[in-house]
Amino acid sequence: MVSSGGLILKGFDSEDKVYLEGDLADPLSVVGGEHSGDLLCVGDSAILVGDRDELKEYLVSRPERLEKLFVDVEKDLSLCSGKGPFDLDEFTASLVAKKQCWLEEYPPLLFGEKSLYRKGIRLIERKEYPSAQEVLRSYLDQYQNSPLSRPVKLFYAFSCFLNDFLEDALASIMDILESAEDEISRIARFFVCHMGLFESGFKFLYKGPRYSSDLFRILKADYRRIRKADSDRIVFEEGRKAGSVLFLLKGEIALLKKRGDKNSVLFTIKSPSSIGEIQVLSRSKWDTTLKIKSNSEYILIDRDKLVQYLIHKSPQDGFRMVEYLLGYIRQTSVT
């Protein structure tokens, strides 16, 4: 991410520790874990390179720099959300193309595994999704401890999604993510954020931004309109434009997804937590319906007040939010 007169940052993973500022810096060699090369710094530009903790210390101590970085990330987020729709056919083709490779990487142990695996994938190719889900479920019931069950869980999650069984799809993906990180888990994470969930899917995967308890104390003491739910009720509806971030101070929120004319619960979020940062900052619509549970307390904050609290009143939490947004951009952009 590049900003004239501001910061040049490549995420928060670099091990380099160099900072320059001035009218002209002749080519400077920078070597990192992923990138290396010469940089030419001209005018009032600034280069900041460091590990996560060093960047955090610098930005938290300078809220004006943190706000500039946040604004740049907000612009990137809007561009990310403005991309074309997820190409389901292309994704299907890319999954199916890996079937033989995964068969070799995760070799079956018992007789009969290979035929069920291939049959389930053939049914996906034929768009016979209910049958594919049934066959792949049968495989997992019989061979759940086989190495080949790992790619089968991904194909099964995909078939559940195609049959509109989102809860089962998410459960299968969580089984995948409980094991070691590999290509299948990376694809599973990418897929969750393209199941029509977007921010809700990212929240399901990573829980964050994991704000500090200090922030929630500030909000509770400072904010005049703490809302209380005496009974279960809908706060935001799927498809409506997101205008406020919800900070849950007490209780629980259920995230629901439309299935025909009904809503089904995908998962729940417990306090203290928040949701809506990505959808509000990208000016998008709610991807799920939010139902607040009885005896819960929450507040709603618009974009400008969000910046005021996270950048100027609790900059360490502003840094956490920026990390969260960058993580979402990376997750939804790369398989």
UniProtKB/TrEMBL annotation:
Cyclic nucleotide-binding domain location: 223-310
Checking Pfam families in the record gives: cNMP_binding
Q: Which SUPFAM superfamilies match?
A: cAMP-binding domain-like (SSF51206)
- Which residue ranges traverse the bilayer? none
Sorted alphabetically, which Gene3D superfamilies does this protein's record hold?
Answer: Jelly Rolls (2.60.120.10)
Q: What is this protein called?
A: Cyclic nucleotide-binding protein
Q: Which organism is it from?
A: Mesotoga prima MesG1.Ag.4.2
